Fold:
Amino acid sequence: MEEYELSLMAKGKGKQRKRIRKRAWDAEHDVDTASREPRRVRGRETGVGAPVEESFDCAACFTEGPANGLVVSPYGVLAFVEVDGIERLCRVQEALTDGKTSFLAPGDRVVIEERDGENIVIAVRVRHTKLSRPAIERQREQVFAANIDQLVVVAAKTRPRFKPGVVDRYLIAAEFGGVSTVLCLNKSDLPGAEPESIRNYEDLGLPVIRSSCQTGEGIDAFRAALEGKTSVLAGQSGVGKSSLLNAIEPDLELDTGGVSEITGKGRHTTSASRLYHLKGGIQIIDTPGIRQLGLWGVSPGELDVYFPEIAALTAHCRFRDCSHGKEPDCAVRQAYEAGQIAPLRFTSYMHIRESLGENQVF
Ligand code: GDP
Ligand code: ZN
Structure:
């Protein structure tokens, strides 16, 4: 595999994405293809402003070959890395940093070498998936979880109110990074009807787990969905992410009801992302960052790709670059007006499109 083609993955069909991911995986485990030669960085259009000539998360820094370390938590120009089951604090080679921070993310597979009694991260391997958002300065991609299998979007049936727009953004970020998604609708014990949009997601083929930390409903299904995988749990504060993790592993003793970060037993709580091992081969990357999810790498014109029900119609719009706003003969708007596109999805599409244009995060 010549280069990790995420944009291709984002646009590709499921099978194509799987193939690309498999190739990255194969390459990563193939000793013969090991290469530490830096690659040329390509500029690419992003949804958040001007073309980026050189990304902080630069393709040039990724190499193929075997790894002997798993990044647990990056820490400035240092990183906690698991080597042979032991967590070590390592220094990250300067070329893999901007002088202040490394671009490593929890889940990254790296090569550690001991030099003069110091453990140094000398290479980072090609990522097969990632979750990213624009860095504070916007013109950079910030990857906050690498090589994850799935994004579990947690929402509550009510309290806090279900926000389809928030869910849609998570789905886009996951799709962009080649990550599968599962929706967990927690607090099923609360009275009242389910949010209307859950049916839309089921119609789109998104697996939905209904759970309750009060009654225990769906907890087994939730655990089963995580087993043997590396997952990121995302969702608004108060939906029950910590409660769900406590339900599957009571020993974790996570703070609930306000503090939503995984505190780790006796560990100093920081806002850093971190990978945790749970029983049953469950790996969770806790990413405080994802709670403020802006979208990286998606331009307004590309947004259709992430809404399959809209993408299916755009070819029938009169204008090829139709924004499905005020243009005449817009097939998408006609379908929406005829009740063929779920109103909440259409509204969400419009809001996200507008926010991409205005370079905003939510
Ligand atoms: P987080 O911010 O997403 O980690 O949410 P927490 O796990 O801290 O939960 C927020 C609040 O919701 C706490 O008061 C929990 O006790 C409550 N909660 C969590 N899960 C459920 C549930 O399934 N049903 C009900 N009724 N309350 C829940
Ligand atoms: Zn249109």
